[in-house]
Amino acid sequence: MSPRQNPRLSILSLALGLGMLVAAGASAQPAGTSSSSGMKAGSAGAAVPAADKSWAQKAAIGGLAEVEMGKLAQQKASNDQVKQFGTHMVDDHSKANDELKQLASSKGLTLPTDLDATHKNKMAKLEKLSGAQFDRAYMDEMVADHKKDVAEFKKQSTSGKDSDLKAFAAKTLPTLEDHLKMAQSTDAAVKGAKTTASR
């Protein structure tokens, strides 16, 4: 009896062993698949914080507006100081815009290349004016714009999360502060000229 039973036992044990191997292989496959998909899901790069991205987009639109309005001042201003101020805006803001564009590109950020509705409306109003009227309206706009720019760049230079954008804001801030002083003195000169003429 024992010689006949032994082959049966060995066949049974072999079949059981093969069954366990097949089951183990089948269960291992989904586990491997899920782990590889898990790796893919977690491989995204670090993004620029939303607040910094928003600041960069606003700064880009503001810079474009300064250049476009500056070009308008070069064409339409009747006061030489206003024309010179316009030239400063075109030169300085073109340089700053290019620098910001390169910085944003290195971080995978796409910046606006056109003015928003607010700035388009401002441009449309200025285009309708000429002479002393244009000079006063443009300089009023420049004083208000640069007050806002200085405040926003100052905030970014101290509380920005992205170190590169923070450094750009800190580097550009002194130029904007100079622009504000220049805008205020030019604005005063334009209004002073009007007062003298009215007397």
In short:
With 199 residues, the chain is mainly α.
What does this structure look like?
With 199 residues, the chain is mainly alpha-helical. It folds into 2 domains: 1-41; 50-198, Up-down Bundle (Ferritin), CATH 1.20.1260.10. 85% of the residues lie in helices and 0% in strands. The chain has helices at residues 2-41, 50-76, 80-106, 117-127, 131-159, 163-198. Helix 2 packs antiparallel against helix 3 (80-106) and helix 5 packs antiparallel against helix 6 (163-198). The longest helix has 40 residues, at 2-41. It is elongated, with a radius of gyration of 34 Å.
Features:
single chain, 199 residues, mainly alpha, Ferritin, 2 domains, elongated
Chain-wise SSE layout:
Elements: H1 2-41, H2 50-76, H3 80-106, H4 117-127, H5 131-159, H6 163-198
Helix pairs in contact: 2-3, 2-4, 2-5, 3-6, 5-6
Q: Can you tell me the CATH class of the largest domain?
A: Mainly Alpha
CATH topology of the largest domain: Ferritin
The ordered string of helix (H) and strand (E) elements is HHHHHH
Helix/strand/pairing category: mainly alpha
Continuous helix count: 6
Largest sheet: none
Shape: elongated
The overall number of domains is 2
Tell how many strands the DSSP assignment holds: 0
Q: What is the average per-residue confidence, as pLDDT, rounded to a whole number?
A: 83
Strand content: under 5%
Radius of gyration from CA coordinates: 34 Å
Query: Which consecutive residue ranges, at least 5 long each, have pLDDT under 50?
Result: 11-24, 26-45
